[in-house]
Predict the structure of Glutamine--fructose-6-phosphate aminotransferase [isomerizing].
Amino acid sequence: LKGAFDDYMLKEIHEQPEALGRLLEPLRGPGAPGRAPLGRGARNGSRTLPNGRGTSEAQVAGLRWLPELPTNVDEVWFVACGTAYHAARLAASYTDELADLPSRAELASEFRYGQPRVGPRSLVVVISQSGETADTLGALREAQRLGAPTVAVVNVEGSTIGREADQVLPLRAGDEIAVASTKAFTAQVVAGLLLALRLGQARGVLRPERSGGILEGLRLLPEQVAAMLAVQEARMQELATRWRDRRDLFFIGRGRDLAVAMEGQLKLKEISYLHAEALAGGELKHGTLSLITEGVPVVGLATQPDLAVKMAGNLQETRSRGAEVLVVVGPEAEGVTELAFMSVVLPQGVDPLLRPVLAVVPLQLLAYAVAKGRGLDVDKPRNLAKSVTVE
Ligand code: F6R
């Protein structure tokens, strides 16, 4: 079943273009390729789009396959555990911006016992690959008890969470076997963006040019992920050889990049058993900078144009203390790469909202390569289970 791959995790990392292609099939048409031929690099923006581009009618039609969402709500909560919580943070940022609704992400275990102040005018979206996670299910039931309308984003469609929520958005990412979640994560992020678009449209707060641009970006995304995989796999292996016996690694980002940093550190620590920590750029000075010394590995994310200058300042602070910095940056922040000994520059023309999906790919590859280089069982890390059905 692993085919040509050594491990399920590597197979699932490489299945991302295909998985996203399936989730986005209603936008891209059934024949659209999920995977660029290996080594051919990025195709950029010039391909003819299946629905043509432009008219707001086509855009509205383009989202009709998504669950109908209640518009009479005042806020949106995204609730999940682990990797799915990182996707929830991104989903909340999308809904806040595109649907113009106060939105937040919460850990399911905190939500269910934290007396959340939700009610009939709070939309609660739970995100879960397995659809069986005990805390996420508990949170869903608590939200329903409080009268909130609920939506589940799940990969396993017949799962308990999928059955119990009022509405379901299936991820269609295919079976995920490796304990460390990869293709489900990128699908969850895209699903969050689709829900935000749907809600924004239903509420009439989304300009057609804005939604049109994002939908066009989504259509191109699977090929861009394929190109990222093709280019970065060998580079991340090289970096892993250098970093695999270090003790602590730090992942730093701001805004959406913080969610990606959190996901990168979780992936690395759960399969490599190295200590990794994610933090907001602005928090560096408030404690963690004392741990940044000569040769400490730092992964800096600066993909969001409005925050790139601030992140450059933070990374400079780590550099001047001798950190070894890998940066993942947008094309307009190329200056930041001068600080780094290795950099991943995202392609031109990708909407900042879509960049987390591309930015996480090298971090998945890095985590995989570090664990593999340490001779570990990548698919079944110690002490962890794929589906956490007890609290
Ligand atoms: C990490 C990982 C876990 C899960 C978490 C939630 O790679 O896989 O953190 O994301 O246990 O699981 P689901 O999404 O099945 O609710």
Strands lie at 75-80, 103-107, 122-128, 150-154, 167-170, 248-253, 275-280, 297-302, 324-329, 342-345.
